C-alpha cells in the first residue's frame, strides 16, 4: 500500500470532523470523571489544526512536516495535559516519515508505533491507570505483532484498532489512578475514560481512511 501526503491531509481533515461530531459525547464522558471539557478541548485543538490544513499545509508534501506541524498546532491551541501527549505522538511519527511524500506499509507501521511510543513516554501512565494508554498500548502491541507476521499494514492496523477498542472499553471497570479523576477513587468505576475514547477515535479514523484508500487502489 502506498499512502501519500494528500491521503494524510485528508485523514487529518476527517479527524477534525469526527472530533466536532463527537464533542458532546466526549464531554458527557468527562463529566463523570473530570471537568467535563474533554470534547471542547479536542474540538479547540483540532479546529486550530483545520486552520493549518486549509492554509499553511494545503500544498505541503513532506509527510514529516505535516505530522509535526499538526502536533505543534494542537499543543499551542490546547493548554490541558492532552496537548503535550498528542503533540509528542505526532512529532515522533513525523520524524519517521520526514522528507517523504509517499510511504509504504513498513513506514506506516513505524509511524504509528512512534506515535504510540511517544505518547506513552511522555505520559508515564501504565495500562490499568484508566487513561489514553489503555487504548494505545494494546493497539501498539497488536500492530507490531500482527505486522511482523503478515507484513500487511491494513490487516495489522485493523487488529490494532480492535485491540484499542477493547482497551478503551476496559476503562469502564477501572479505578482511575492518575489525574483529576483519581480523586474519585472507587466512584470512577463505571465510566469510560474520555482520553482513551478520543485516542480510539483517532486510530479508528485512520483505519477508515486506509480501508477507503485500499478499495480505490
UniProtKB/TrEMBL annotation:
<keyword id="KW-0418">Kinase</keyword>
<dbReference type="InterPro" id="IPR050861">
    <property type="entry name" value="Dihydroxyacetone_Kinase"/>
</dbReference>
<protein>
    <recommendedName>
        <fullName>phosphoenolpyruvate--glycerone phosphotransferase</fullName>
        <ecNumber>2.7.1.121</ecNumber>
    </recommendedName>
</protein>
<comment type="pathway">
    <text>Polyol metabolism; glycerol degradation.</text>
</comment>
<dbReference type="InterPro" id="IPR036117">
    <property type="entry name" value="DhaL_dom_sf"/>
</dbReference>
<dbReference type="InterPro" id="IPR012737">
    <property type="entry name" value="DhaK_L_YcgS"/>
</dbReference>
<comment type="subunit">
    <text>Homodimer. The dihydroxyacetone kinase complex is composed of a homodimer of DhaM, a homodimer of DhaK and the subunit DhaL.</text>
</comment>
<feature type="domain" description="DhaL">
    <location>
        <begin position="6"/>
        <end position="208"/>
    </location>
</feature>
<dbReference type="GO" id="GO:0005829">
    <property type="term" value="C:cytosol"/>
</dbReference>
<comment type="function">
    <text>ADP-binding subunit of the dihydroxyacetone kinase, which is responsible for the phosphoenolpyruvate (PEP)-dependent phosphorylation of dihydroxyacetone. DhaL-ADP is converted to DhaL-ATP via a phosphoryl group transfer from DhaM and transmits it to dihydroxyacetone binds to DhaK.</text>
</comment>
<keyword id="KW-0319">Glycerol metabolism</keyword>
<dbReference type="GO" id="GO:0047324">
    <property type="term" value="F:phosphoenolpyruvate-glycerone phosphotransferase activity"/>
</dbReference>
<dbReference type="InterPro" id="IPR004007">
    <property type="entry name" value="DhaL_dom"/>
</dbReference>
<dbReference type="GO" id="GO:0019563">
    <property type="term" value="P:glycerol catabolic process"/>
</dbReference>
<dbReference type="Pfam" id="PF02734">
    <property type="entry name" value="Dak2"/>
</dbReference>
<dbReference type="GO" id="GO:0004371">
    <property type="term" value="F:glycerone kinase activity"/>
</dbReference>
<keyword id="KW-0808">Transferase</keyword>
